[in-house]
Amino acid sequence: MPSLNLVEAINLALREELARDPDVLLLGEDVGLEGGVFRVTEGLQQAFGAGRIIDTPLAESGIVGVALGLALLGLRPVAEIQFMGFLPPALDQIISHVGRYRHRSRGVYSAPLVIRLPYGGGIHAPEHHSESIEAMLVHTPGIKVVVPSSPADACGLLKSAIRDPDPVLFLEPKRIYRAVREEVAEGMEPIPLGRARQVRSGRDLTVIAWGAMVREAQKAAETLAAEGVETEIIDLRTLSPLDTGAILASVRRTGRCLVVHEAARTAGLGAEISALVMEGALLQLKSPVARITGFDTVMPLPRGEHFYLPDAGRIVRAAREIMSF
Amino acid sequence: MELADYDPLQGKRLQVLDPEGNADPALLPALDEEVLCLIFRRMLAARLVDRTCLTLQREGRMGTYPPVEGQEACQVGSVLALSETDWIVPSFRELAAALVRGVPLERIFLYWMGHEEGSRIPKSLRFLPVAIPVGTHILHATGLAMGISYRREKDAVLCFFGDGATSEGDFHEALTFAGVSKAPAIFFCQNNAWAISVPRKAQCAATALAAKGVGYGIPGVQIDGNDPLAAYLATEAALRRARAGEGPTLIEAITYRLGPHTTSDDPGRYRSAEEVERMRPLEPLVRYRLFLQGRGLWSEAWEAEITADIEKWIAESIQKAEAFPDPAPEDIFDYMFAELPPHLARQKASLLSSLQEE
Ligand SMILES: Cc1ncc(C[n+]2csc(CCOP(=O)(O)OP(=O)(O)O)c2C)c(N)n1
C-alpha cells in the first residue's frame, strides 16, 4: 500500500472516481493545467482531458452555479474553490439554490455536486486564506459538510461525497495537507458520511475535534496521559449531519466533554455540540461542557496567527480545569 | 486626444511610445522634463523594491508576495495623472501605485511581512488597504465615487484590478452602478495576460476587456500598458470626463506579468520561458529609458545616482519594518469595534491570562 499525504490521497480519490464514472467532472480556478494551487488535482487534466478537468474563469458564484446546472442534468461535478476565504461570492448559490433544489422540486431534481474547500489557519498565509467558516455552512439547510483529518479518511470520505445524491461541501484542512502520511489502499472502499471516528479511547474526558485540530488534540492527549488523564478523541469527520450517537455515547462514558475548533467561538459548532450534550447526557456530566475555539475576531495575519489558533497547550490547560472541576 | 478615437471593438489601442522608445509627436503629453524624469524614477523605485521583496521572501523575512515587475508603467503613469485628493482603490499588486502616492515603504514591507500595522495608511493619502479577494473591491470604488457626486466634490476614484477580476460578478455590479449614476470612477484593468495559470483568452471570450464597458454605458479604451505616457494620457482623459460629470471610464492596459503570480507560484508549469523572453524587451523600463535617452535626459551616471538613492531608502525602510514590534495579542480584539463589546472583552482577558500561564 502506498504511503500518501492528504493531497495525494485526495488526488487518488478523484482519479479513481473519474475513472469509475464518466459523469464525474472537475472544475475550478487553476485546477487543470496547474493542477490546483495546492497541486491536489495534479496530473488529472493530462489523464482525463481538458473537457473533463475544466479551468474556469475567476468567478466563484459562477463555478458553483454552473456546477449546480451540471448536476441538475445528472452529472457529478466536483468544484474547487481555491480557499474557503473566497467562498463568500458563491454562498448565494449555495444558500439560495444548491441546498434547496431537491426540496424545491419535491425530489424531482437533486444536486449531487461536491465543493472542495481548502480551509483553516496555520500556514502563514495572507488575509482571507485562513478562514474556518464551517458553522455558516452547517447552519445552511440541505447541504452536507465533511472534514477529513487523515489521508485515508480523505480518500474514503471524498469517494462517498462524490457518490452521494446530495450536495456535499468537502473541507480540506490545508495545514495538514503535507504534514501527515498514511497507508492508503488503491481502490479502497468509500467511508460512509455521517459517522465519527474514535481516534483514541479513554475513560476520563472526551475531546471532540475535526480537521487540523484532531492533531492538536492528539498531542494534548499524550501530555495528559503522562499526568494520568485518559483522553478519548472523537474526530467528527462529518459536521452535517452530525454523528450525535457517537458524541453522546462517548460523553456518557467519560462524563466530561471538551470541544475544540479553530473557527470563531460565538455560534460556532462547539455551541451546538454543547447543547446536544445537555440534551442527551446531562445526568452523566461531571463538569460543564468546555470549548477551546478561535476568537470572534478577524483571523490575524501570519505574525499574530499563533495568538488565535487553538493548540495542544490550550487544550491541556482546559482539560486540567475540567478534571479539577 | 479623444478616447472616442480608440474604439476597442475596432481593435484600436492607445500608444504614445513605440517599443524603441520613439514618441508619437501628436500624442506626447505636455509634461516638463522634471515630470518625465520622475516617471522613470518612480518606475525604477518600484522595480527595485519589488526585487527586494522577492529576496526578502526567499530569505524567509517576508511572507507570500505578489510581484509587480512589468506593470510599473500602468501604475506610475495613471497615478501621476491624478491630483493628490483623488482616491486610489488598489487590489493586491499595486506596489508602484502605492509608492507614487507616498504610502510609507516600511508599511508596505510590514504588510507583506504579515503584520496588520502594514495596512495603517494615513487617511489623507486616500489610498485604501490591500484587497485580497479578487474583484470585490471594485464596488467600493463605485461607492466612493457616488459619494463624491453626492457631495458635489470634484475628485475622482481610480480603481485597479486584473483581467481575471473582470470575470467576477462584483465587477459587473460595480460598472452597472457606476454607469447609471455617472459616478466619477476610473476602472483600470491591468491585463497582465494571466490570472494565476489561466490565460486571458480562457478568462473571457470577448475580444477586448475594454469593450465590456459598452454593456454598461461606459466608454472603454485599450492602451499599451507598458507605456507610461499612454497610461498617463488615458487616465487624464478619463479624469476630464469624471470631473465634467460625464461618468466613469474603463481602461484596459495591455501589460505583462514578468514574474510569478506570487512567490508561492511556479509559472514554469503553465507558460513557456520563450513567452517571457519575448515580452522582456517590451517591458516599461527598457522602453522609457530609450525615450529619455533620445531626449538627452538619461545617462548611466544619472541612473546610477538615483539607484543609489533608492537603495538607501529601501535599506532604511527594511530596517524600520524589521524593528517594528511584534503585534500585541490585544491587537486582535481592539480594532473590531469602536468600543470593545463585553464578549470580546472576555475573550481578550482569557487570551491574556492564558499567555501568562504559558
Ligand atoms: C475571490 C477570489 N478568488 C480567488 C482568489 C485567488 N486568487 C488570487 S489572485 C488570483 C488571480 C487574479 O488574476 P487577475 O485578476 O488577472 O490579477 P493578477 O493577479 O493577474 O494581477 C486568484 C485566482 C482570490 N484572491 N479571490
UniProtKB/TrEMBL annotation, chain A:
Family matches, as Pfam families: Transket_pyr (PF02779), Transketolase_C (PF02780)
Keywords linked to the UniProt accession: Oxidoreductase, Pyruvate, Thiamine pyrophosphate
Keyword Oxidoreductase (UniProt): yes
GO MF entries: oxidoreductase activity
SUPFAM superfamilies in the record: Thiamin diphosphate-binding fold (THDP-binding), TK C-terminal domain-like
Domain Transketolase-like pyrimidine-binding, chain residue ranges per copy: 4-179
Phylogenetic placement of the source organism: Bacteria, Pseudomonadati, Thermodesulfobacteriota, Desulfuromonadia, Desulfuromonadales
Domain of life: Bacteria
PANTHER family, per the entry: PYRUVATE DEHYDROGENASE E1 COMPONENT BETA SUBUNIT, PYRUVATE DEHYDROGENASE E1 COMPONENT SUBUNIT BETA
The protein's name in its UniProt record: Pyruvate/2-oxoglutarate/acetoin dehydrogenase complex, dehydrogenase (E1) component
Cofactor(s) in the UniProt record: thiamine diphosphate
InterPro entries recorded: THDP-binding, Transketo_C/PFOR_II, Transketolase-like_Pyr-bd, Transketolase_C
Automatic annotation (TrEMBL), chain B:
UniProt keyword terms in alphabetical order: Oxidoreductase, Pyruvate, Thiamine pyrophosphate
Cofactor(s) for this UniProt protein: thiamine diphosphate
Any one GO molecular function term: pyruvate dehydrogenase (acetyl-transferring) activity
The enzyme's E.C. designation: 1.2.4.1
Top EC class for this record: oxidoreductase
Coiled-coil boundaries: none
Record-given protein name: Pyruvate dehydrogenase E1 component subunit alpha
Species this protein is from: Desulfuromonas soudanensis
